[in-house]
Amino acid sequence: PILAVQNIDDVYPLPMDFIQSNHQIFMLKVQGESMIDAGILNGDYIIVEQRSTAENGEIVVALIGDEATVKTFYKEEDHIRLQPQNSSMAPILV
What we know:
Layout: E1 2-3, E2 25-29, E3 45-49, E4 59-64, E5 67-75, E6 80-83, E7 92-93
């Protein structure tokens, strides 16, 4: 997880076809190696659409307290599992 603070480093133009809805779009810089098996590497930039829901198997940016984490989302019987795509890391259960 990384500290989730509003930290605007720069503004980047995006092609309009990147924006498929009226949701807010963010670009975040990845820190860490929890998603390397999904091809998301330390230092990569990801484009994220803000939504209030997610489907099982989707990659999400989740806020846990004041930290953001990129993981694969699974809603299970009595909790949500945020699964890293790195076999050496444990899931986060919330």
